[in-house]
Design a protein that fits this description.
Layout (H helix, E strand, L loop, with lengths): L9 E10 L6 H19 L3 E9 L3 H9 L4 H18 L6 E4 L3 H16 L3 E11 L4 E3 L19 E10 L5 H10 L4 E2 L1 H12 L5 E2 L1 E2 L7 E2 L2 E6 L1 H6 L1 H4 L10 H5 L7 E5 L3 H14 L7 E5 L2 E3 L2 E2 L10 H8 L1 H11 L6 E2 L2 H30 L17 H18 L3 H22 L1 H6 L3 H22 L4 H10 L18 H4 L28
Parallel strand pairs: 1-2, 1-12, 2-3, 7-13, 12-13, 14-16
Antiparallel strand pairs: 4-5, 4-6, 6-8, 9-11, 10-11, 14-15
Helix pairs in contact: 2-3, 5-6, 11-12, 12-13, 13-15, 13-17, 14-15, 14-17, 15-17, 17-18
The protein binds 5'-O-[(L-methionyl)-sulphamoyl]adenosine.
5'-O-[(L-methionyl)-sulphamoyl]adenosine (MSP) binds next to strand 1, helix 1, helix 7 and strand 12.
């Protein structure tokens, strides 16, 4: 049964479907964190949101990983998949669909899609010769390789020579249509630097690519020639379509595409840009389907400048990180400190400094000191001030009135760091305002009205800050809201029950006078600096 409210705008977004050659690392978590933030933000706007994530389980890379452990590939996948599910839970990621490419209903979708592409005359047999990186599951151009035939991305893995009969997809046929797409929809590929990369690649001339393998058993058989196995990427991209099926629907393309297609946003890392921005739209054009709205390719999390990954063995264990610092801390750091779209190095000293400065000092102290003053000077409830009374010149009101729209634009542009910075400016201005205006002396001088106006403006600023950061730090924002006397948990803001819609809560003046406040409690405990620093 389809429960989607037809009157609301829909917003479907995807993370990549992750390879299950190993348990997830912080790099794989990065895209999913960002996707969860976008999904939460879109839900606050009141849209029907579908966040799709999942696992990509076929191909030689997985087959070899299973073999090296003496396991059957399906058993191996079944053992690894729960580590993704539990990491998403640990990071407080609220996805709607988890797509596994080994699901039987996925095969039905792949077969139907293959048939459409076949009927379009876009599949033919040919000889594939070239250098293959099993870790990328991709053929490489000879000029891209590092000395000694090493892969430029998995710099400790040598590529392997292949010379075999494969089925090919007629990518070259779509060159002009793709160029037209990039022209007519300039933000189809974001950010701009990635768009340019793709334009350069496509302008050099597209070559057909092989969509089947021999000597690899782990995958779906090619529908018209079961001696061949379908190339893992051909089946993986279609995992996005399978994920759109309602759980009880018959697996047909028509059923999959009714409600959520075309997908609004594919979030991916820059290494898989070609697949999403070139191969995928061409496959869809061939099958006669509408194209997704946008592909955003983010940068890499690096350690000492190198991409973090299992293959290179330089990863950071996300489970340990969350257990040590909590999910909000991890979410905040990666989204605030790394410009989405650019590479960013992880450094634990900086991690601790940022969290202490922003969450413990600026935001946490602001809430705490203000609540304590309200307790003392206004008997523990929101000052009875109508927000209209507060002058337009009040610096906090002036920032607060425009902040919602500014932060909305930042979230929509996936500029998470800018959203955080803008909110932090209000938080910092609030701390400064208290220091300068000294409510304790206003109170002593008997200026009750001025004291209450001031504290109202500050409380309202903390509220607004908490609201606007709630997609990123939902637990802390919920804690702040509760201390401000709201019965709202940002983790419960799912489509059917948005109790804090953006249209209301992102504006200035939401706190109602006399609202009973909660007990002041630290919202983020200062982290002790590392021992060896
Ligand atoms: N299975 C394919 C995707 C198929 S989508 C239909 C795949 N899987 S992956 O597990 O190797 O990578 C998934 C995503 O994780 C990619 O977007 C990749 O960019 C991202 N990351 C892997 N390591 C990363 C970093 N060190 N930093 C940031 N993202 C990284 O590719």
């Amino acid at each position: 049964m389809n429960l989607v409210n037809q009157t609301k705008k829909t917003f479907a977004l995807t993370t990549p479907l992750y390879y299950v050659n190993d348990v997830p690392h912080i790099g794989s978590a990065y895209t999913t964190l960002a996707a969860d933030v976008v999904a939460r933000f879109q839900r606050l706007l009141g849209h029907n949101v579908l966040l799709i994530t999942g696992t990509d389980e076929h191909g030689q890379k997985i087959q070899r990983s299973a073999e090296s452990l003496g396991k059957a590939p399906q058993d191996f996948c079944d053992e690894i998949v729960p580590s993704f599910v539990s990491l998403w839970q640990l990071l407080n990621i609220k996805y709607d669909r988890f797509s596994r490419t080994t699901a039987p209903r996925h095969e039905a979708i792949v077969r139907e899609f293959f048939e459409r592409v076949w009927q379009a005359g876009d599949i033919y047999q040919g000889q594939q010769k070239g250098w293959y990186c099993v870790s990328c599951e991709e053929f490489k151009e000879e000029r891209e390789l590092l000395e000694g035939n090493y892969c430029p991305i998995h710099t400790n893995k040598q590529v392997e020579w292949r010379d075999e009969q494969n089925y090919f997809f007629r990518l070259s046929k779509y060159q002009t249509q793709l160029q037209e797409l990039y022209q007519s929809q300039p933000d189809f590929i974001q950010p701009e630097s990635r768009r340019n990369e793709v334009l350069n690649f496509v302008n050099q001339g597209l070559q057909d690519f092989s969509i089947s393998r021999v000597n690899v058993d782990w995958g779906f058989p090619v529908p018209r020639d079961p001696k061949h196995t379908l190339y893992v990427w051909f089946d993986a991209l279609l995992g996005y379509v399978t994920a759109l099926l309602e759980p009880d629907a018959e697996p047909t393309l028509a059923n999959a595409l009714t409600t959520w297609w075309p997908i609004n946003l594919h979030l991916i890392g820059k290494d898989i840009l070609r697949f999403h921005a070139v191969y995928w739209p061409a496959m869809l054009l061939s099958a006669g389907l509408p194209l997704p709205e946008k592909v955003f390719g983010h940068g890499f999390l690096t350690k000492n400048g190198q991409k973090m990954g299992k293959t290179l063995g330089n990863t950071l264990d996300p489970v340990a990180l969350v257990q040590r610092y909590g999910s909000d801390a991890v979410r905040y750091y990666f989204l605030k400190e790394i410009e989405f779209g650019k590479d960013g190095d992880f450094n634990e000293v900086r991690f601790i400094n940022v969290l202490n400065a922003d969450l413990a000092n600026d935001l946490g102290n602001l809430l705490n000191r203000t609540l304590n003053m309200v307790k003392k000077y206004c008997v523990g409830s929101v000052p009875s001030i109508a927000y209209e009374v507060i002058s337009q010149d009040n610096p906090l009101k002036a920032i607060g009135l425009c902040l919602g729209e500014q932060v909305k634009q930042a979230y929509e542009a996936l500029a998470f760091n800018q959203a955080c910075e803008a909110v932090l400016l209000l938080v910092q201005a609030s701390n400064k305002f208290i220091d300068e205006q000294a409510p304790w002396s206003l109170y002593k001088q008997g200026q009750q009205q001025a004291t209450e106006e001031l504290l109202y403006a500050v409380l309202e600023s903390v509220r607004l800050a908490a609201y606007l950061l709630s997609p990123i730090i939902p637990n802390i924002s919920s804690e702040i809201y509760q201390q401000l006397g709201f019965g709202i948990d940002f983790n419960d803001q799912i489509q059917s029950s948005i109790t804090a819609p953006f249209a209301i809560h992102a504006t200035w003046g939401v706190l109602s006078s006399k609202q009973q406040l909660g007990t002041p409690q630290p919202i983020f405990k200062r982290i002790e600096p590392l021992q060896n620093d």
